Amino acid sequence: MILLSTIALTTAALMTMHQQDAGRDTIMPAEVQQLLEKDSTVFLLDVRTEEEYNGATGHLRGSVLIPVQELAERIGELAPHKKNTIIAICRSGNRSGWATSMLRSQGYPALNMVGGMIRWNSEGRPVEHSERK
Q1: Where are the domains of the chain?
Q2: Which long-range contacts (CB under 8 A, 24 or more apart) does 58-61 make?
Q3: Measured between alpha carbons, how far is 60 from 24 in angstroms, rounded to an integer?
Q4: Average confidence (pLDDT) per 10 residues, the chain, 133 residues
Q5: How far apart are CA 74 and CA 56, in angstroms?
Q6: Is 75 exposed, middle or buried (0-12, 13-18, 19+ CB in 10 A)?
Q7: Which pLDDT value is given to residue 2?
């Protein structure tokens, strides 16, 4: 019961933070591509489901998948990247906005990629697709 209350409070806090930060802490896909070309320390965090990550929209080369539903419990995995720019990515930019707010509240220098993979793909940028067996 305590765990459910904690999850509910965390979700409410994240929603509030995302609404407050909706116009800030973002990066456009073109800027992501430029940043990746000049800074090898950028960390790409994809917060979609595994099915989406491996699906038709593809994913960015080198990105690490941690679904947004698991981010709070797996945030420790990002500790080695606490000084690096973290680009949060999802399908449209909504879930990655929540992830960005949560990461920033924990001291991570995170940015939300505006428009997510939909926008990335619509601008003709390269993606990877996982091998399906």
Answers
A1: 2-122
A2: 58/117, 58/121, 58/127, 58/128, 58/129, 59/89, 59/117, 59/127, 59/128, 59/129, 59/130, 60/32, 60/89, 60/120, 60/127, 60/128, 61/126, 61/128
A3: 23
A4: 45 41 75 94 97 95 97 97 96 96 95 96 81 41
A5: 26
A6: middle
A7: 53
Give start and end residues of each alpha helix (H) in the chain: 2-21, 29-38, 50-53, 68-74, 94-105, 116-122
Q: Which DSSP helix (H) or strand (E) runs through 46?
A: strand 43-46
Q: At what angle do helices 94-105 and 2-21 cross, to 10 degrees?
A: 100
Give the separation between CA 104 and CA 111, rounded to whole angstroms. Answer: 9
Question: What is the architecture of the domain spanning 2-122?
Answer: 3-Layer(aba) Sandwich (3.40)
CA angle centred on 17, ends 12 and 20, rounded to 5°: 130
Q: Which residue has the tokens 């800030």?
A: 24
Max Cα distance, the chain (Å): 48
Q: In whole angstroms, how far apart are CA 91 and each of 2, 8, 13, 22?
A: 32, 24, 22, 16
